Automatic annotation (TrEMBL):
Belongs to the transglutaminase superfamily. Transglutaminase family. InterPro entries: Ig-like_fold, Ig_E-set, Papain-like_cys_pep_sf, Transglutaminase, Transglutaminase-like, Transglutaminase-like_sf, Transglutaminase_animal, Transglutaminase_C. The lineage of its organism: Eukaryota, Metazoa, Chordata, Craniata, Vertebrata. This is protein-glutamine gamma-glutamyltransferase. It catalyses: L-glutaminyl-[protein] + L-lysyl-[protein] = [protein]-L-lysyl-N(6)-5-L-glutamyl-[protein] + NH4(+). GO terms for molecular function: metal ion binding; protein-glutamine gamma-glutamyltransferase activity. It comes from Triplophysa tibetana. The active site is at residues 319, 378, 401.
Amino acid sequence: MSNPDDSTFYLQTQKGRITIAKSNSEEVNPPEFESLRLDDEVSPRAPSSRPFSVLGVDMRKVENKKAHNTGRYKNSCLIVRRNKEFIIDIRFDRPFNIMEDTVEVEFLIGSSPDVNRGTHIIVSIGKDKNEMIWRCRVLNTKGNQVTVGITPDTDCIVGRFRTFVCIVRGKAKQRTPKNPDTDVYVLFNPWDSADEVYMSKQSDRQEYVLNDVGVIFNGEFTDMSSRPWNYGQFEKGVLDACLMVLDAGKVPLVYRGNANEVVRQASALINSQDDDGVLVGNWSGDYDIGTSPTAWNGSPEILLKYAREDGVPVCFAQCWVYAGVLNTFLRCLGLPARVITNYNSAHDNNGNLKIDIMLDEDGTVNRSRTRDSVWNYHCWNEVYMKRPDLPQKFSGWQVVDSTPQETSDGLYRCGPTSVSALKDGELSYPFDGKFVYAEFNSDVIYHEIDKYGKTKILHVDTTYVGKRIVTKLINSNKYEDITSTYKYPEGSKSDKAALQLAERSGVTLRDYDYDEPAEAGVDIQLQANTIKLGEDFKLTMNIKNQSSKRCTINATITGSVVFYTGVTTTTVMRETIQATVEAWKTETLLMEVRAKEYIPHLVDQSNLLFVMNGRIQETGVTLTTMRVVTLRPPELTIRVSGSPRVDQAFTVIVEFLNVLNFALEDVQCRLESPGLIQTKFKSYEQILPGGIMQYTESITPLEPGQRVLIAGLDCTQLRQVTNQLEINILAV
């Protein structure tokens, strides 16, 4: 095996050492003139009666791109899809004689073209027709021009091929010189039933392959919010950047025709944890040496920066950034993909499908002993494809996650794993089913630590994790609830059957060494309305006595600043309460949470975690619950001045009013729109309380159609401020 830094590696076989290319960008071009050895010839060939040469090749890019649904790629080369014919014209210096002349069209990829490995494709037109992997037919001959239809193989490598036309005369080949204008990009084909990524519905293909903008859901499951995201898979340079990601990861070209392999490799390569992939993760709150994860509005800026800087990882990312960039990568190569948000997503560090929350005797979360966490939300991706390595029923949507949480086969990656298999508890199939299953189906176990360090289980919540799993609804910015595709209703027969299958996969579920407490007969809920950042607010505690006897509740409510990953920082509130509730009655208590107490300690996405730990005085039964409150940031507005028309400038105005009682420092503002403008960036040293930021940009559209403007504002004191505006560009 060669040095892993090389662009090729070697495979030892009985016939010797075979070079296997690992880079699409590395190339060795064949000579323009080649003399064939005798053993290369299948049968003797006589030269044509009249020698001739190639004057030009027309790739018919506009026509072919339209037929292959690739016309939106801002790339000057031809882009086609597997198993669909594309048409080229070859012009000679004399009429082509199909009975006498032999012409070959060659497609080469990588630095070690090999006919047997699919990296050197030869299609023949004329009198000598050899067996071909790619199909070819002569469609028309007119004068000195021949029109040829060529169909890439269903399983062919996805990437950029160089094109040569060869005239074969006797024992010699005369090739056209290398011409970048005749390069052909071949992509996966979700329009073709023979392709492993086929989708039958046009509406699905429009959303999951062709849509270059979307929304990614965040917030908290009782107070969901979202942010726009520019996938931008058709933007200039993005396709080459995606291929460079595979090159930087040294993915062998021979693997790049296999969707399963491409997806699994991409899961590792979008993060930089092992292999200098695209994005560096950072959940510390300190982003001074890079860009805050909340500042990005889309993928093109990130991918183009990675390509421009020759594979230096881009700083920084968190889960939705990883998911957004992976979604771009997959859609760009033709793989149907979507971003998923799992609310109350468990990160199970020890693989036991249990989330252990450790509480001190006063009800405070013990941060040093609480190693598991429940994220307010976690974003991953689903990709739609066949799984020939699994039973047929497990094809379809597959989970793939590029956020580096745990290793899989030695690398930080996750998936693809079948959503259908997860729902049925079939966790032994590749890849990473147990880890993904834990994210949406773990139990939360509350432990109490006494003064001697001993612990006991207070309460087990089997429904807190995976409260809601959503994705963008087709043709809408609203969410589609897809929880039912991941799990059956809690406690149903199907749910119990799936749990039993999961246990057969080596997972121990709901086997706790403690005495199940008597039925409490009391239900306690913590509630808060939608809260704007910087406001005082009321936390509501509803105590519902569902028994026939009066009860007295003694409880402690602790409020802490928390990252969206569930990691707590500063405690900002602790209140002890006692309430007596009559039989069959509900008592409501209000607790004041003051902005001056939480504002100085907020991190990233302005979340507060409230944990209630209580006891029923009459029975000794413990009660535990928790609630995350997401504080909504001030609004950012986008408007346009003038009527957007092709070749006519119009103005975009992005405005922000600082309604907070403190100044914002080192503010960044981004504006972008796929198909209209690349990312524009502006910095402001300070926005004072009551101050207005107004950022204007003049734009001259080149094409008509619907576009989406996406803007974002970001600084250390204020994150996750975004908005979008849909506009219609009119023709002249």
